Amino acid sequence: MDTVNKKTTRVRFAPSPTGFFHIGSARTALFNWLYAKHTGGTFILRIEDTDKARNTPEALRVLMDGMRWLGLDWDEGPEVEGAYGPYFQSQRNAIYKEYLEKLLKSGHAYEKEGAIWLKISGEPQVIEDAIRGTVVRGEEKDFVIFRSDGTPIFHFVNVVDDIAMAITHVIRGEDHLSNTSKHMELFKAFGAPVPIFAHIPLILKTDGPGKMSKRDKGALVEEYQNRHFLPQALRNYLCLLGWSPKDDREIVSIQEIITLFDLHGINKNNARFDEQKLAFINGEYLRSLPLEEFIVLTRPVLVEAGVFPAKGDEDYLKAMLSICKEKIRSIEGLAEYTAYFFKDDFMWDEATRVKVFAKGQPKERLKEVCEALQGYQDLTEVGFERLIHELAEKHGVKTSEYLLPVRFALSGQGVGPSLFGIMRVLGKERMINRIENFLKKNSN
Ligand code: GLU
Question: What is the pTM assigned to this prediction?
Answer without folding.
Answer: 0.92
